Automatic annotation (TrEMBL), chain B:
Pfam families, sorted: GatC
GO terms for biological process, alphabetical: glutaminyl-tRNAGln biosynthesis via transamidation; regulation of translational fidelity; translation
The protein's name in its UniProt record: Aspartyl/glutamyl-tRNA(Asn/Gln) amidotransferase subunit C
Function: Allows the formation of correctly charged Asn-tRNA(Asn) or Gln-tRNA(Gln) through the transamidation of misacylated Asp-tRNA(Asn) or Glu-tRNA(Gln) in organisms which lack either or both of asparaginyl-tRNA or glutaminyl-tRNA synthetases. The reaction takes place in the presence of glutamine and ATP through an activated phospho-Asp-tRNA(Asn) or phospho-Glu-tRNA(Gln).
Catalytic activity from the UniProt record: L-aspartyl-tRNA(Asn) + L-glutamine + ATP + H2O = L-asparaginyl-tRNA(Asn) + L-glutamate + ADP + phosphate + 2 H(+); L-glutamyl-tRNA(Gln) + L-glutamine + ATP + H2O = L-glutaminyl-tRNA(Gln) + L-glutamate + ADP + phosphate + H(+)
Single GO MF descriptor: glutaminyl-tRNA synthase (glutamine-hydrolyzing) activity
Record InterPro entries: Asp/Glu-ADT_sf_sub_c, GatC
């Protein structure tokens, strides 16, 4: 029998349906792979007993012909999703040993459809980071290394554990979240596929909040089809999230292989940055050529406010974070540090419980919302956000179906290499992805090639609101042309 | 705009994060780097532009004003650092 961990989700689904193997066998193969890959630090909690129990239960259902769309498929869950009875920390010391008494809507839908939980995945603390280096459990290793080098690279962030685990064949797919690029950037760094759906497509209920007007859940998987299968289960209306949208979830998988002939693809000139590496430029033109060869029409478009998206994001996101994270007060759950009075208890708890990046963002958020500065910073940023969204609307109004851009300005870098002196250096990683969150649009990152050092690079497709299907169709064209990329095992 | 050391201490207090004196210069540098980065927004003409309130144009859904949850006091206090019965314990707030 071939190694079960190397199957795609779609292949595993067939094997399970044909009774070539059981979910328990598939689950055990992944549990062994996880154990052998602890050096990557992708999992912050392994749940082997629960995984085997879930697998056995689903095997019985499959035998009776009652398996759901993801019956028996082992997945990893980002530690930002509340999982009933299983520690959930957002990789922050301040949540300590928090054990939810409830299940997030997104994960409950995955279990409803028969998926099996292998454990909880590492991420940047409260999803604040682009390299998975701010986690209280330490950094995650990227399964990819530069040709001929032993240097461990970052997998990107904040969903670094999700991307690393999927790329290293530790799980068949993973949940992730994206506030400024946290699904798409790590996907690009690890040659995996990641989609951030339209804001409102997945319920945010039970996901640890970072910036509520930007946060969206989505899957990371090893193929476009696998991502489509996962998103179908994750998406859907939830009365418990007032921003979740009440429209039917399409069968995303049906979009795979659909003709893209006649689709109009925008190439935004503002994404052509000064000093952009030649190989990113080349990848981008190649991607455009592949889509053209498949019958799509390419048009140059302009998104004039692109350069203001990242600075506006660094006002809006910290402002919302400072307000969301006010709940961590050492009273109702998580860490408590004593103080002489309740104020001191709050201050000591939050100083001890939050890491440096989180403290910095909560403070900047507090500042931009404080009396006398609100109009100059927060209000202005929200106006700029309106202009960013209008840029996309103008573009779509001209008949553009999707926009093609690079996913990241560079390939993966070494642990500790960026952001040490100036936090803004790290923030620039999200320059191509953050506009999509600001406008609430869907965006997919698809592996498209490698740089001169053998590291994967990805392309991003941005779609109209709730037209994820277009992204799956186009993404698969790129996947077919570029081929699939698997890292050489060193762990 | 940039912040001075006194402002850093004031923000830290507003954010309820204890900051020691020797952390102030470092934090001041980082916050000023972020403020310098967002400064470029001042060149955007936002005259007459509505600030964004909802990224997806939708009517805010309203729930029925009825009790539909509750009786889970054990769950609510399950993760608390200090409790007595179904109450959270905190240092004395009122003299």
């Amino acid at each position: 029998m071939t190694d079960l961990t190397s199957l795609t989700l779609a292949e595993a689904r067939k094997g399970l349906a044909d009774k070539t193997f059981t979910s328990l066998e598939l689950t055990d193969a992944h549990l062994s792979a996880i154990e052998a890959a602890r050096v990557l630090n992708a999992f912050v909690m392994e749940t082997p007993d629960r995984a085997r129990d879930m697998a056995k239960a689903v095997d019985e259902k499959i035998a009776k012909g009652e398996g759901g769309p993801l019956a028996g498929i082992p997945l990893g869950i980002k530690d930002l999703f509340a999982t009933k009875g299983v520690r959930t920390t957002a990789c922050s010391k301040i949540l300590g040993n928090f054990v939810p008494t409830y299940e997030s809507t997104v994960t409950s839908q995955l279990w409803r459809d028969g998926a099996v939980m292998l454990g909880k995945l590492n991420n940047d603390e409260f999803a604040m980071g682009s390299a998975n280096e701010t986690s209280c459990f330490g950094p995650v290793g990227n399964p990819w290394r530069r040709d001929g080098s032993n240097t461990t690279l970052v997998p990107g962030g904040s969903s670094g554990g999700s991307a690393s685990a999927v790329a290293a064949l530790l799980c068949m797919g993973a949940t992730a979240t994206d506030t400024g690029g946290s699904i798409r950037q790590p996907a690009a760094f690890t040659a995996t596929v990641g989609i951030k759906p339209t804001y409102g497509r997945c319920s945010r209920w039970g996901i640890v909040a970072f910036a509520s007007s930007l946060d969206q859940a989505g899957p990371i998987a090893r193929s476009v089809r696998d991502a489509a299968m996962l998103l179908r289960s994750m998406a859907g209306h939830d009365p418990k999230d007032t921003t979740s949208v009440d429209i039917p979830v399409p069968d995303y998988e049906a979009a795979i292989g659909k003709s893209v002939k006649g689709m109009k693809i925008g190439i935004p000139k503002e994404y052509r940055l000064d000093g952009m590496p030649a190989e990113i430029e080349k990848l981008w033109s190649e991607g455009a050529a592949w889509l053209k060869a498949a019958g799509a029409e390419l048009v140059e478009v302009s998104l004039p406010h692109t350069k203001y998206a990242l600075p506006a994001y660094y006002i809006v996101a910290p402002a919302e974070a400072s307000s969301n994270l006010a709940r961590y007060d050492g009273v109702r759950y998580g860490l408590r540090e004593q103080g002489k009075n309740i104020i001191e208890q709050y201050e000591n708890t939050r100083a001890e419980g939050f890491g440096a990046e989180v403290r910095r963002r909560v403070m900047i958020g507090t500042y931009v919302l404080s009396a006398g500065y609100y109009d100059a910073y927060y209000l202005r940023a929200q106006k700029v956000r309106t202009l960013i969204k209008k840029d996309f609307e103008d573009c779509f109004a001209k008949g553009v179906d999707a926009i093609l851009t690079p996913a990241t300005p560079s390939a993966a870098f070494g642990i500790g290499e960026k952001g040490g002196a100036d936090p803004v250096e790290m923030y620039l990683n999200d320059i191509f992805t953050v506009t999509v969150n600001m406008a609430g649009l869907p965006g997919i990152a698809v592996p498209a090639g490698k740089d001169a050092q053998g590291l994967p690079l990805g392309l991003q497709l941005i779609g109209r609101p709730f037209e994820e299907e277009t992204l799956f169709s186009l993404g698969e064209v790129i996947e077919q042309a570029a081929g699939r990329f698997t890292p050489a095992r060193w762990w | 705009m940039s912040v001075d050391a006194a402002t850093v201490r004031r923000i830290a207090h507003l954010a309820r994060i204890a900051v020691s004196e020797d952390e102030v210069p470092h934090l001041q540098g980082e916050l000023n780097a972020m403020l310098a980065f967002v400064e470029q927004l001042s060149e955007v003409n936002v005259e007459g532009v509505e600030p964004m309130t909802s990224v997806t144009p939708m009517q805010m859904k309203k729930r029925q004003d009825v009790v539909n949850d509750g009786e889970i006091a054990d769950d609510i206090v399950a993760n608390a650092p200090a409790t007595e019965g179904h109450f959270f314990l905190v240092p004395k707030v009122v003299e």
